[in-house]
Structure formats: C-alpha cells, structure tokens
C-alpha cells in the first residue's frame, strides 16, 4: 500500500493544474499572480503603517486579529526573505513587548485565551534575535496557561468571563503557542496537555452525523445557547471550524515525532478534513458562514472560513499530515477565493471582501448561537482576520507549488533519490575554482558542509526540516560533487573557499553545520573568520591531526604520496571504493541499512581526485590549536560525535572544548562516523535545538 506522505510529482502537478500555478486559465492565473499574499500584505502595511488596529480609529489592543495578519506576513518573510516583512512584524510586536518582558495592554488575570495567540510571534522574534525580552514575554503567557481556569476534565475555559465553556476558536488561540513554547524550552510533558485540549474539544463538539464541530460547548449546561443534554451550541460556524483546523496543523509542527498522542491529533485533523471536504460548495469551492445550511435564506460564502480551511488542508498535505487527495479540495478553494473575495480598486490596491466581523456565544448583548444570529453579523472588506487568513492560505499554496513531493519533510531515513526542496541552484566563480551550491528556505543563513568522499547530497535527510526554519545553503567543496577539481600544486584552504562563497551570496554571518571534513572546515572557518559566524555544529571533525599550510610539503612527502598513488592504481579504484565504503559502514552498526544507499551512491560518484593526487594543505590541521590559544574566539560551538565513533575523535572534541569558551559536547545514540545518516532524527533535533538558542541576526 502506498504511503500517502510520499507522493509522485504527477499527483501534485495534476492538483496544481486546477489552481493554475502550473496552468490556470489566463485570467485567473493573472489574478493569482497579481493579487496574492504579497499584494494583500502591501494593503495591510498601507492601511496600518505603524500598528494594527482591529477597527481603524479605535485604540490599538493586544489582539489576536493582529497576530493572524502577522502570521501571514511571517510566512511571506520565510518564503521571500524580504526584510520589510520581518521589520514590520518586529515593529508591530515591539509596540507591546517592553524591554523588561512585560506586554502593554495585556492582563494575565483576565485569563482570556485569545490573548495567548500572539505568543507565537513573540517566540518567532526570540528565535530570530535571541533578545531576552521576548522569552520573558512568552514565559508570561505560559504562566497564564499554568493558571488558566479548566473544566473538571482538564479543558481550558475560553475566557474567565465564559466559565466552563470551550470554543473551537480557543484551540487556535492557545495550542500552537503552547506547543511551540514546549518545543523551545523542552517542556516535553506539555505535549500531553496540548493533545488533551484537541481531543476534548472534538469529543464534546463533534457531530457524528455530519463530522462537523459545533462552535462551542458548555460543560455546565447552563447557557441559553447550550443543548441541555450535550452542552453543544446549535450551529456549525465556518470560521470556528477554520480556527480549529489551523490550530491543529500549527501545533503539529512542534509535536515530537514519537509522542504517543501525536497520531491521535493527526487523526482528528483527518476527520475534520473529511467533513470540510464534504461541505465544500461544489460550484465555488468555498465554505458558507453556517457550514451545513448552504441553501438557507441569508446564508453566504464567507472569506475567513474559506481561507482558514484552505490553509489547513494545504498545509496538512505539504507537511504529510493529510493524504494528497485533499490537494484538489484546497486548490479549488483557493481559486474560488481569488474569484469571489479578491478585488483591486481604482488605485490599484488589492482588497479582501466577505469576512464576517465577529461571532461568539453568550455575553452582552446575548448571542444565542442561532442560525439567524450568525447570518446577521456584519460583513467587512479588509477585516484583519480575513486578510491574515488569506495570506496563510496563499503562502501554503505557493509553497506547495515549489515542493514536488508533499510530506517529504517527514522522511526519517536517507534515500538516494531524496533531493530535498532546493529552490535555487547555481555555481559561484571564485576565479580559481567554481563551487556548486543549492539554497532552500528563508531566515537566518545556515551552511551545510559535507564529509570527505561525499557531496551536498549527504544532507538530504536534514534539508527539508532545516529549510522550514532557516535559509539553508549546501554546496560541494572544491574537488567534490559538481564543483571544479583542484589543480595539483595550487594552494587553497576550504575555509577560504567558504568565506568567498558567503561573500558572493551576500551573507555576512551564518550558522555552520559540518560533518567529518565539513566539521574540520567549519572549525577552521571559526578560527579564521569568527566575525562571520553565528554558531558552529561540528560532528566527527574538530582537530585535524596533520600539518597545516604553514608547513610546506616536503620532497619526501611528495615521493611517498607518489608511491601510495601507484599502489592504489594497481589495486584498482573500484576495490578502493568498496573498502572505503566498508570502513564507513562498519561504525554504523545496525543502522547501516538506512545509511548505506546514499553513502554508496556518493562514494560511487566520487571523483577520487584527493587519493589520486598530491593534495595541498587544505585544512589548518595542527596549526589550529596554537592559533586558538593565541587568538581565542567566542563563538557558540557544539561538538557532536556518534556513540560508535572512535575514542580519538571523541577525545579531540574534549580538547577543543577546552579552547573555546562555552563550547558544548554531545554524543548521539545509535550512530557512528556519519551520524546524520545513521540517526537522522537525533542529529537534526540536536542541530535545531542548539541553533534555536543562538542569535539569528
């Protein structure tokens, strides 16, 4: 049976043809290009140049509507790297987050779960800038959740002023932040509680007949809108379903892959997606304000519900939470959104029509949850919640158009055919060499450095996951892969090549992740160019135990190398490669079944220039320790080794740790020399955790 998370290109392409990113009819395709997320972001930044107000002219509030719009703009920044988007997010959040970590206009004691939502943006800024005020502010919101009122079964109240009530809206407002905070701070026990909230909401609000979820649930059965037996509200509000769906896909991004409740949360998303698909308007591809009453008088197709459900379905497919069949549903919906809700006015400004201003339950004046109530609430153009939801949906659709195989980010084992989501490929001319590189993702730059006899493909298991958070560059070093071969007798350092590569790509600072040879190069670069380093993760490559470039190659060395080259040629290159591969696999132990295919492919493709020539001193080697002693550096450094790595390698890590203040060491379980292939999950998690704690800009 085919795993739906790994899909051939033809399935994705056929779905995207319906949208038109691969072949929309001319008029609609032009509309998609001219009126996408970037154009609506421009409208937002024009209407609200300084701060986002829910209602123009009224005092600005700490409000979830602002957060939804900023999430959409964050998605644009992650896709494009355009600094104006990051600056706008930071300016908007900094209006509220004070230098001491307090949040202007926020009161913890209100216990309003809507006010937790913007914590995801605070954590985003913390991860990008590492400014302490953001972590303090996020911790303040976490404190709210610790004391937030709950029902007897543990479900969060929507607000303190709405006792014993859970609303679908609240799962989007609280759980993605809760999961993100838990992931960053390693509060792993919190994921049980995050899962519990989604499970309880579905248990109490889902209608088994339609599969839809009622807007709210009163555990006390005291509200006028609540069914006296079930506690459920009487109708299925579209945007509430959209909030719940968006909360699921956003929280799942942070769930540990092996968490026992993760599959339960994914299953909830699957049931919700099936219901949403069932109630999608077949003509327009959109969803109604009241989902199951499409033909009732007064009902209408509503923008924010349509955008949020499109977002959840598209992201669910892209992340591998949903099967590919939902692509057709999502792309049809997005085409309907462009046709029904997007307009361009006489001044060229792109606007979003058709968003209901608000809907709730109870309160003053009392909202009874009836059908008549939902269809009488005012509808707005350029409502900030709808605009944010549109950008979320558009970003996901455009990401899908760039990702040939949805769900590839969830692959855990290396595959020779896994090339990752590279969006840019090219060669940098250094004058004396050309370096092949690939680039994917957006955010702080992160450079991946491969090992000896390998090439950029060794990072296939990590690329997709890392590119969700960073601008990832992987390249072939001189003499490997698609880069040019060295010239015997010509001196160069791999670290200098890396420096010139970063200059050519206009990258002033970067995180470096290297393994074996790549680890040596990363350490050399740290010693030579500490001002250009954000952090270094080096695995099985710290102190190269051979002479450095300050010691010229002697005639005796050249003669010895010529003898070794002749012996190698006599033995046969194929035999050498098999023996070399066997030595690599030996340290992998039981894990070699997962690492062997990609290792074998790279070794087979290796030019073998290095063992067949007198290679210059391309690493600092034994000059590294004296250099670091004379010129200490203060760079965040993590030294990794697989548990099956040689004792000598692990000892070198300990020596280097003493030379770099604050350096850390760690041993990866079930891994040998090529740890990123032996145990890709542990390797990737170690890298992400370490880099997340470092400054990003």
Automatic annotation (TrEMBL):
InterPro entries in the cross-refs: 6-hairpin_glycosidase_sf, 6hp_glycosidase-like_sf, AB_hydrolase_1, AB_hydrolase_fold, Epox_hydrolase-like, Glyco_hydro_88, PolySaccharide_Degr_Enz
Alphabetical keyword list: Hydrolase
Pfam families according to UniProt: Abhydrolase_1, Glyco_hydro_88
Domain named AB hydrolase-1: residues: 445-680
Region spans: Disordered: 402-424
A molecular-function term among this protein's GO annotations: hydrolase activity
The keyword Hydrolase is assigned to this record: yes
Annotated protein name in UniProt: Alpha/beta fold hydrolase
Species of origin: Hymenobacter bucti
């Amino acid at each position: 049976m085919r795993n739906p998370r790994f899909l051939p290109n033809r399935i994705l392409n056929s779905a995207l043809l319906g949208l038109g990113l691969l072949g929309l009819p001319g008029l609609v395709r032009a509309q998609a290009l001219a009126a996408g997320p970037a154009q609506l972001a421009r409208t937002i930044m024009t209407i609200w140049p300084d701060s986002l107000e829910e209602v123009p002219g009224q005092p600005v509030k700490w409000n979830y509507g602002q957060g939804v719009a900023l999430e959409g703009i964050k998605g644009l920044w992650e896709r494009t790297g355009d600094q104006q988007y990051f600056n706008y997010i930071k300016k908007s959040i900094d209006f509220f987050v004070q230098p001491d970590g307090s949040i202007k206009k926020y009161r913890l004691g209100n216990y309003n779960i809507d006010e937790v939502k913007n914590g995801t943006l605070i954590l985003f800024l913390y991860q990008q800038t590492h400014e302490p005020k953001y972590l303090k502010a996020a911790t303040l919101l976490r404190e709210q959740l610790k004391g937030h009122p709950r029902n007897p079964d543990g479900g969060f109240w929507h607000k303190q002023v709405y006792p014993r009530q859970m609303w679908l809206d609240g799962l989007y407002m609280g759980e993605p932040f809760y999961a993100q905070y838990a992931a960053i701070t390693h509060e792993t026990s919190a994921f049980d509680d995050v899962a519990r909230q989604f499970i309880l909401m579905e248990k109490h609000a889902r209608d088994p007949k339609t599969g839809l979820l009622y807007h709210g649930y009163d555990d006390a059965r005291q509200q006028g809108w609540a069914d006296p037996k079930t506690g459920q509200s009487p109708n299925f509000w579209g945007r509430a379903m959209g909030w719940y769906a968006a909360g699921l896909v956003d929280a799942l991004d942070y769930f540990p892959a092996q968490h026992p409740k993760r599959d339960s949360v994914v299953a909830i998303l699957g049931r919700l997606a099936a219901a949403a698909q069932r109630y999608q308007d077949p003509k327009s591809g959109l969803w109604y304000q009241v989902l199951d009453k499409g033909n009732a008088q007064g009902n209408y197709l509503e923008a924010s519900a349509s955008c949020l459900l499109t977002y959840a379905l598209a992201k669910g497919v892209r992340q591998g939470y949903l099967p590919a069949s939902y692509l057709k549903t999502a792309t049809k919906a997005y085409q309907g959104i462009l046709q029904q809700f997007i307009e361009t006015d006489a001044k060229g400004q792109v606007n979003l029509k058709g968003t209901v201003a608000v809907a709730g339950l109870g309160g003053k004046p009392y909202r009874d949850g009836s059908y008549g109530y939902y269809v009488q609430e005012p509808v707005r153009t350029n409502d900030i919640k709808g605009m944010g939801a549109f950008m979320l949906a558009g970003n996901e659709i455009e990401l899908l158009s760039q990702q040939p195989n949805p769900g590839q980010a969830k692959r855990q084992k290396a595959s020779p055919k896994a090339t990752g989501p590279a969006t840019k490929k090219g060669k940098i001319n250094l004058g004396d060499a050309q370096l092949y590189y690939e680039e994917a993702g957006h955010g702080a730059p992160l450079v991946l450095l491969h090992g000896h006899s390998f090439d950029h493909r060794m990072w296939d298991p990590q690329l997709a996951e890392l590119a969700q958070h960073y601008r990832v560059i992987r390249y072939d070093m001189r003499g490997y892969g698609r880069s040019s071969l060295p010239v015997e007798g010509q001196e160069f350092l791999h670290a200098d090549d890396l420096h010139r590569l970063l200059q050519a790509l206009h990258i002033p600072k970067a995180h470096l992740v290297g393994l074996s040879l790549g680890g040596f190069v990363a350490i050399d670069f740290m010693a030579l160019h500490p001002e250009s380093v954000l952090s270094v993760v080096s695995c099985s490559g710290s102190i190269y135990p051979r002479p450095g470039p300050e010691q010229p190659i002697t005639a005796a060395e050249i003669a010895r190398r010529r003898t070794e080259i002749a012996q190698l040629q006599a033995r046969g290159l194929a035999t050498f490669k098999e023996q070399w591969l066997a030595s690599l696999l030996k340290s992998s132990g039981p894990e070699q079944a997962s690492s062997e295919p990609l290792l074998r492919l790279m070794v087979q493709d290796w030019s073998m220039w290095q063992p067949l020539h007198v290679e210059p001193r391309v690493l600092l080697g034994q000059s590294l320790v004296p250099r670091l002693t004379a010129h200490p550096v203060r760079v965040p450094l993590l030294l990794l080794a697989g548990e099956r790595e040689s004792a000598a390698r692990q000892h070198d890590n300990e020596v280097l740790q003493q030379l770099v203040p604050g350096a850390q060491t760690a041993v990866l379980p079930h891994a040998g020399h090529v740890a990123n292939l032996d145990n890709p999950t542990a390797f990737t998690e170690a890298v992400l955790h370490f880099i997340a704690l470092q400054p990003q800009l």
